[in-house]
Write a structure and sequence with these properties.
Blueprint: H1 3-6, E1 7-11, E2 16-21, E3 32-35, E4 42-44, H2 53-59, E5 74-76, H3 82-85, E6 93-97, H4 101-105, E7 143-145, E8 150-152, E9 157-162, E10 171-175, E11 180-184, H5 201-216, E12 222-225, E13 231-232, H6 233-246, H7 249-271
Parallel strand pairs: 4-5, 5-6, 6-7, 11-12
Antiparallel strand pairs: 1-2, 2-3, 3-4, 8-9, 9-10, 10-11, 12-13
Organism: Astyanax mexicanus (Blind cave fish)
Protein name: Metallo-beta-lactamase domain containing 2
InterPro entries: Metallo-B-lactamas, NDM-1-like, RibonucZ/Hydroxyglut_hydro
Length: 274
């Protein structure tokens, strides 16, 4: 299967493209965001990496006619879980938060939570492909991101917000001028997952408190999440406050139990990758 068949995209306002993997039918299918800037273009998350994302972007002309005059496309992982980081190795420039640099550089398929099944891939990307052989390919990040870093696209800037909880290196990217938040898996319109390796409920609560504060200060109008559809400030406020209110002692105990089981299952699953 070609890259042209594997991916599909929608053109949104303000130089934003929404890319998805057509034949990965799963709640884990991540949104891939492409932002065009006057000097730098940025991809936020890169999917599974089963077909060439750079080839698709180039062939579809998503970078415009002046692409050769720009810096190489920068791919940023909002975190290193497999559904977001699997395609990062395809890019010359790669950025992730400093807390997850080693996991990506070492191809650590435990921390990347690599858990893919054949039934989720409804058409094989290449002959003989099987999910049990899938793993996140190691890549050394060229951009080690920290809280407060600003990624300059020329006519727009993205501020890095370290928002741990879902994973230890989870980030949001905030376009302050346009009041847009690229939230990765910190928040999306669904149940927040806090029971994976390196998840932490206490960190997640503090991250959600930051999100509520951003809404209260009218700093966010539109959220571009890591999964599912976009949503506005009111929904963001509700999702964040709901998590905060639910994260009591009982929740922490049950989450710890599920986390232990999930970690054991991941250890076993990844020991079978060949």
């Amino acid at each position: 299967m070609s890259s042209m068949d594997w991916y599909a995209h929608k053109t949104l306002d303000n130089g934003v493209f929404w890319i998805q993997e057509r034949f990965y039918e799963s709640g884990n299918r991540a949104n891939i965001w492409l932002l065009r800037g006057s000097h730098q273009d940025v991809v936020i998350d890169a999917g599974l990496g089963l077909r060439s994302l750079p080839e698709y972007i180039s062939s579809k002309g998503l970078l415009g006619e002046d692409a050769k005059r720009k810096k190489p496309l920068l791919a940023i992982g909002t975190h290193v879980h497999f559904d977001h980081s699997g395609g990062l190795h395809q890019f010359q420039q790669v950025g992730v938060h400093e807390a997850e640099v080693d996991a990506l550089a070492n191809g650590d398929n435990f921390e990347t939570v690599t858990w893919l099944s054949d039934r989720e891939i409804v058409e094989n990307p290449s002959p003989g492909w099987t999910a049990r052989r899938y793993k996140v390919k190691a890549v050394m990040p060229t951009h080690i991101l920290q809280e407060g870093d600003v990624i300059n696209l020329g006519d727009r800037q993205l501020t890095v917000l370290h928002m741990p909880g879902h994973s230890r290196g989870s980030i949001c990217l905030h376009d302050k001028e346009n009041k847009m938040l690229f939230s990765g898996d910190v928040v999306y319109d669904g149940s927040m997952i806090d029971w994976l390796p390196y998840s932490a409920v206490g960190d997640y609560v503090r991250s959600c408190e930051r999100l509520v504060e951003m809404v209260d200060k009218e700093e966010v109008e539109l959220v571009m999440p890591g999964h599912y559809n976009t949503f506005g400030a009111k929904r963001l406020h509700r999702l964040a406050t709901n998590y905060i209110s639910s994260a009591g002692a009982c929740h922490k105990v049950s989450t710890c139990a599920v986390k232990s089981v999930a970690s054991l299952a991941l250890r076993f699953s990844n020991s079978c990758i060949c």
